[in-house]
Amino acid sequence: MHSLDAFAAGKLAALDEAALRRRLVPTARGPGAAAERAGRRLVSFSCNDYLGLSHHPRVVAAAQAAAARYGAGSGGSRLVTGNHPLLDALEERLAHHKGKAAALVFGSGYMANLGITPALAGRGDLVLLDELSHACMWAGARLSGARTLSFRHNDVADLARLLEAERPAHGRCLVLTERVFSMDGDRAPMGDILEVGRRHDAWTLVDDAHGLGVAEDGPRAPLEMGTLSKALGSYGGYLCASRPVIDLLTSRARSFVYTTGLPPASAAAALEALTILEAEPERRARPLALARRFTARLGLPEAESAVVPVLVGGAEAALALSRALEAEGFLVVAIRPPTVPPGTARLRVAFSAAHDEAQVDALAERVAALSGR
Asked: N or C, which end of the chain has less CB nearby within 10 Å?
C-alpha cells in the first residue's frame, strides 16, 4: 500500500473505532420539511432552512429568472467580472436590514470568517473568541497571526479579565462571538459583550448565521456577519459594517479577492427571501415558538432559538438514537466530536417555519420514549 493510502486507512480505522467517521448520505429535500433518504420519506429536523424559504415559490422563481438572464455562474472574481448587478442590490438590502452603511457578500459564511479577521488583525494584535465559536472563526483568527485566546462560553467576566490582562500589550483587538450558537442554540449576552469591548477599544465581530430572521433582536456589533444559506434559504455569506471597513475588506480580504463571485441565482434567491422575511413577522416567530413547544414537552430548558440540543453523551449512543428516530420517520442527525466537546455528542434539533405542531409533538414523543426522558 502506498504510504499516503496507509496513512489515510490508519486514520479512518481510528475514527471508526471511536464512532467518529463521517459519511456522505444522499438526501433529497422538498417543501414542508420533507427529506428522502434511500427511498424513504422523512420529516427533517436537521436542516437550517429556518423559515422554509429554500422552496418558497417566489424564491425559486427569482433564482430561475436570474440564471436565465445572467447565466449559471458569475464568470470571475468580483473584482474582475464577477460583480453582477444583483450582488450590489443584495449588499444594499443586507446593510439596510442590519442598520449599517455597507455590506460585502462572500462565497460562504465560512469564507467570510476566513477573510474578515486576517484583514483587520495581524502580528502584534489580539483576538479573543468565545470558546464555542464556530470552526471558521477559529480558522480566521489563526490565519491572522494575532495572539488568539478564548474566553469561557458566554462569560463576560472572563472576557473582561482577559482584556484587562492582555489588551495593553497589543495593538488592535477583536472579540469574536455568535449571536446564536450553532450547536447549543443559546444566545450571547451581546449588550454586555459590546460594552466590555468598547471599554477596552476592542472591535466585536458577531456571527449571526443562526440568528438572522429568527433571533437577531438586540444591539448590533460593529462587525455583523452571517450567511445567506440558512434563514434566507440560498447560499453565500456577508459582512455588514461601516463604509470604510467594507472598502478595506474589498481590497484586503483574501477569501473575497481571490475567489469567484456568487452565482446570480444565489443572490437573487437571497434578495427575494429577505423581502419575504421582512414582510412576514409571523413566519419569523414560528421556529422559536415550535422550539419552545418541543422543550416544554421534554422538560428541557426553554429554547432561546430555533436550535435545541438533546444531549446524549457518547458518540455511538447519539448515532444509535439518530438511527432509531430515522426508522420511525424522523431525520435528526447526530452531532459528534470534534464539532462538539468530547462527552457531549447530541441530537441537534432544528425547527423551521415549515414544520407543523403535530410533527413537533410526534418527535418529542419519540425522543422521550427512545431516550427514557
From this structure: N
